[in-house]
Amino acid sequence: MQKNIIEVKKISKTYTGDVKAVKNVSFEVKEGEFFGFLGPNGAGKSTTMNMLVNLVKKTSGKILIDGIDLDENPDEIYKRVGFAMQEVGLDEVATAREMLQLHGRLYHMPKADIDEQIKKLLKLVELEKVADKFTSTYSGGMRRRFDLALSLIHKPKILFLDEPTQGLDPHARQLIWGHIKQLNKEGMTIFLTTHFMDEAENLCERIAIMDKGQIVTMGSPEQLKKKHHAKNLEEVFLKTTGSNLGNEEINKNAADPYTRARG
Description:
Layout: E1 4-15, E2 19-30, E3 34-38, H1 45-52, E4 60-65, E5 68-69, H2 74-80, E6 81-84, H3 96-106, H4 111-124, H5 140-151, E7 158-162, H6 170-185, E8 189-193, H7 197-203, E9 206-211, E10 214-219, H8 221-227, H9 233-241, H10 257-262
Parallel strand pairs: 3-8, 3-9, 6-7, 7-8
Antiparallel strand pairs: 1-2, 1-4, 4-5, 9-10
C-alpha cells in the first residue's frame, strides 16, 4: 500500500484585510502519484502550493511532507522537494552547466554527485549540446526545460510544477510532458498546477479542483467525468466552478496606467 507523501490537514491562509485565500483545505497525495491541482485564477491553488513548499506561511492547519511536519523541520523538507515556478528566472550571463553546478553546491552535494546529476539532467531535458552556452540565448521551450533540470539537481522525492507549459508551442509542450512522465515513471511524485485541461487529463492520476479557496471536487479524470456527468474535464471544470478558463475576462476596474502617469 502506497504511503501518503503529502498530507494537508485543514490549512487556511488569511491575508491583511481578512482576505481568505484558502479556507480549511485538506487532501493527501500518495508516494509516486501524479497529482493535478486545478482552479480558476484567484481560486487559491498557487497560494496552497506555495504553502506546501513554505514560500507562503499558512495561517492555520498542518502540513506533512514525507512524514515531516513543515513547522518543525522545514530544512528537511527543502531537501525533499523541487519547485519549478511559472516565471522562469535564469542568470542571463551564466551557462546551464554553471547554474546547475551552483545549485548543487547550494544543496551541499559532493562534486562527484553534482557532475553525475548534471550529465543525467542535461540528457533528460535534451540540452547537452547547449550546456555551455549562455542561458540568454535559449528559446522559451529551452528555458522551461532548463528550469525543470534546475529543480531536479538535488534529486527531490517530490516535484512541484506551476504551469510548466504556459506559453509554449505544442512541440515544446510535448517535450515537457515526456520529461515529467519519465520522472514519474521512475517513482517521483509530481504535483502539477495547469490551465490546460488536456494536460491534466493526459498526465494526472488524480485531480483536485479548487474554487474560492476550497476544494470542490477530487478524483481520477474518469471518476470526475462520471460523477459530474461530463464528457470531458473541461466540462467538469465548468460545472464545478462556473468558470471557463478560456473565457476569463480582464479586470475592468484596474487602474489605467496612462491616467496614473498623467496624474
